[in-house]
Amino acid sequence: MKTFRHLTGDNAYQQKSGVLRVGPPLAQYRAAAGALLVSAVLVLTGCAGAAPAAEAPSTTTPSPATPVPTAVGACPESDGQGPWGDVIAKEQVTDAAGSYCHTTLDPASVGAQFDPAVVDLDSLATYGFTIEDAEAAQRAALIYVTEAGLDSALLDDSATADAAWFESASPWFTPAGHTALTPQVASFGLSEAGVIVSQSLPSPLTRDGGPRATNTAVGVDKIFGTLSVDQQTPLLVVSTNVTVDYAATDAAIVEAAIRDERGTTSLSEDSLRASTPTLFDGSDDEGLVLAGGFNVGFTSGDQTAIEHISAAWTLSTGDGALQIDAIEPELDPSLR
What we know:
The chain is an alpha+beta fold and 336 residues long. Helices cover 23% and strands 25% of the residues. It has one domain (5-52, 78-335). It has helices at residues 27-39, 121-127, 131-149, 162-168, 175-188, 250-258, 269-275, and strands at residues 5-8, 11-14, 16-17, 21-22, 87-95, 98-105, 213-227, 234-246, 288-298, 308-317, 322-328.
């Protein structure tokens, strides 16, 4: 099983990945989604073929008072145009598996609204940030999380190179942030580096012209100032929470659980029949739920390009009977 270092100042920890276990009802993962990333801050971590180009960041920067939503008719091949939670259509994408709708943040959604109550004003003042910086950082963080973190081309593509995708994703990041993350991505991969979700879901997910996720909910737990891992650079961190529902057949879930691509415990179909018989009842109604969040950090004077990112999440069947994968960084004791 791979391990990597979690650096926060002088502390170093190990992170577990690829945990496959039978678990309690998924309600506990939904409830914990908002708490995972409040504590798991500043996790620097980070597989390799030619990857598709990363999606370009949205160029529209709506005013906080007058959000400008993307046209919901942007995915003409989808039978429906939502609602899909806190996201709306961005563009139609066609790949080797078929056509799907790439989504972005809906600025009019509940999850996108700025709540000053989640901002730690004292820490902002300490590190030289303002409430206006916090609002701009939240908007940029949630756009990244919805467009790239949760809905990149590599979400359900296990055959392409993480390093190549990350190189093409440089417009999302500051030069320093991209440089710092590059060796982590090369060593550990995008998912374990906390950059995007990839290599865990069935491949491919549904290709019916609509979004690959049936519902995406995002929110913000906390916005605060701190120091980066160099203990010198002030960071404005947006700690987000996400819950994403995916339609998947029982057969696709079983295949994803059995494959041993990311250090998961090897299981057989027979062992899954014994532990999770609902995956063999022919109903195909469990689906998958990803719950967790991203921490997205920005530097002074630029709340559009990402300086630091980390993530923690679990992927489970919709009924909570089986946890297929998890990115679970150790917690920074100073932030518990």
